[in-house]
Amino acid sequence: MTTYPRNPAAFGSAVSFLARTVAGARTSATVWVGAVTLSVAGAQVGTNYCTPAPNSTGATASISGSGSASVTLNNLTLSVANLPQNAAVFFLCSRTQDFNQNFGGSAGNICLGAPIGRGVGGVITNSGATGMVSVLADLNALPQPSGAVVVQAGETWYFQCWYRDAVAGGGSTSNFSDGLEVLFSGGGGGNPIPGMVPIPAGTFLMGSNAAGGPPYLGGSLEQPVHQVTISYPFWMGQHEVTQAEYQTLIGANPSFSPGPSRPVELVSWHDARAYCAALTAQQAANLPSGYEYRLPTEAEWEYACRAGTTTEFHYGPDLLCNQARFAFSYHTNPPASCVNPSGTAPVGSYVPNAFGLFDMHGNVCEWCLDSYAPYSSAAVTDPFVTGGPGRVLRGGSWSYASYQCRSAYRTNAGPGLANDNIGFRVVLAPVLVP
User: Fold this and answer.
1) What structural domains does the chain harbor?
2) Which has the higher per-residue pLDDT, 82 or 361?
């Protein structure tokens, strides 16, 4: 295993990167990533970031990726263009970006965060021709202190090319390409419908110890706080299912507050499940193996809502009237009603959370797949409750107060209930039977 040499101790356990020497101005190879495929279909994969410095040709080296999400070939080809002659090349990788520090007077900057892995097994050289080289890498097979690297669906990786410009200044001068952000998704093939946000596996603290008085009005239903692990990656709709989406698939729109971009409401838990079943049937040819479109579990919902936060709202400790569609804020001085029109807002009207999910606070309460049950203090993995009479509702609505829109706030209702402050969003996740 080889790590980036600037200060190995600073990078910790680097993710290493297997490379081979390739000849010629343009070649191609494969990065095997296990049981995941790329989330971007077509020839180009990934989003470039970070401004590179010119090399001795006057051009800037540019890294790119190619692959396909439409077939289960699980590959990514990394290439870099606009290299000077006789450039010795290493491809670098990291799970984070924007380290953006200079390396020993190099012409450009590192745009990856620690730890950084680099190629092993030989330097790639472009054999005296300007142009493009590509790399073969195997992230999964390399030994690590804690086992092999596993690239999971829903993970974002960052790549950059570090090269020696043998022409610059009469000697070998380090330089860097721009960076490439690549989102991996899907197990065993399949493509999510547009608007689905990848959510990585992870562990969080579920529930809240908020005090019983204003502003949070916490209660025993949210306690005890306990550790929850979501062991699988999944996708969640970036917004609640809209009236246009529901109308297109089901052929009806029951909503009280009409508008194609507003969330559908006046839908029961049974209605929401019927929508998910119809979407699963429609997308059968595009589903990752063992996955379906369904309502989120309560744990999936809170994990996705929090998006790594531990505060009462994903925005922080407060929820103000300009941050979500709800009715009354306990976080103004004095507490006050929000001056909003009656009913829902178009989805995406407010700032999303760190995962890119909109309207997790307010707008409509969202059905979850679970039956309601009290929490226990034990750490759990992939919790899912079924068999009870009430189904969980999360997120609060346009008619609720701020405390009812908290990340941990939970309530429940009979699965046949339909009213104008209840809607839902879908996940693409492992099959569950409620």
Assistant:
1) 8-185 (no CATH), 196-430 (3.90.1580.10)
2) 361
